[in-house]
């Protein structure tokens, strides 16, 4: 659960979110190193006199500043592609849940069981009990098993919606007339809020 003035991500609850956090840290370190190098070079150019004017025309310098960014982009792209393929992979799901977005609520159906469906409405602010979170509490929560692969089929009845659970690393668009699917697996029990 996010808290006020939080700077980082929510705690990871799924293997995918852990991978996303590692990728974020990896990319942030690369950006930090590049920014430090550029700031250092700019400060050197402003404080020292340029004595080697022939250096700016050297073929070696142009080769380095062409190849080095390509290598850096590869170092960012390869882990990113690996995570994208991991997120798209469906490994023999143990449970399938169909999620339909409506204008003001979500409908859920456990398709592996007969006649097991319900609607989930947001609780109005005036009806909240002490300790409940405004705009996050619902009357019927989705209950899912942990450490099992679950397939979510997401669509919409009327307009575009977004089905997201940040601590699981999930965000899937609900589009009318289109069926999107995503896989989730929780590694620890808990109450996770979507937005």
Query: Biggest β-sheet: count, sense, barrel?
Result: 5 strands, mixed
CA radius of gyration is: 24 Å
Count of DSSP-assigned helices = 2
Percentage of β-strand residues: 15-25%
Per DSSP E runs of 2 or more residues, the count of β-strands stands at 7
Give the total of domains: 2
Provide the spatial order of strands within the biggest beta sheet: 3-2-1-4-7
CATH C-level of the largest domain? Mainly Beta
CATH architecture label name of the largest domain: Sandwich
Q: How far is it from the N-terminal to the C-terminal residue, by CA?
A: 11 Å
The quaternary organization reads as single chain
The sequence of SSEs as H and E is HHEEEEEEE
* Helical content (DSSP H or I, runs of 4+): 25-40%
Uncertain segments are: none
CATH H-level superfamily title of the largest domain: Cupredoxins -  blue copper proteins
Subcellular location: Mitochondrion inner membrane
Membrane topology: Multi-pass membrane protein
GO molecular function, one term: cytochrome-c oxidase activity
Cofactor: Cu cation
């Amino acid at each position: 659960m996010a808290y006020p003035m939080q700077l980082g991500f929510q705690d990871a609850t799924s293997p995918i979110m852990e991978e996303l956090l590692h990728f974020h840290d990896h990319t942030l370190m690369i950006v930090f190193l590049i920014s430090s190098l550029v700031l250092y070079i700019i400060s050197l150019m402003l404080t020292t006199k340029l004595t080697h004017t022939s250096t700016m025309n050297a073929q070696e310098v142009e080769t380095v500043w062409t190849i080095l960014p390509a290598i850096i982009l590869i170092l960012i792209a390869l882990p990113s592609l690996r995570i994208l393929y991991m997120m798209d992979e469906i490994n023999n799901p143990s449970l399938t849940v169909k999620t339909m977005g409506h204008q003001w609520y979500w409908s859920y159906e456990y398709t592996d069981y007969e006649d097991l469906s319900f609607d989930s409405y947001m609780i109005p602010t005036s009806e909240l009990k002490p300790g409940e979170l405004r705009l996050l509490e619902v009357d019927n929560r989705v209950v899912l098993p942990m450490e099992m692969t679950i397939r979510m089929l997401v669509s919409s009845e009327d307009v575009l919606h977004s089905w997201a659970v940040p601590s699981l690393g999930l965000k899937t668009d609900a589009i009318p007339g289109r069926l999107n699917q995503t896989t989730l697996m929780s590694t620890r029990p808990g109450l996770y809020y979507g937005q």
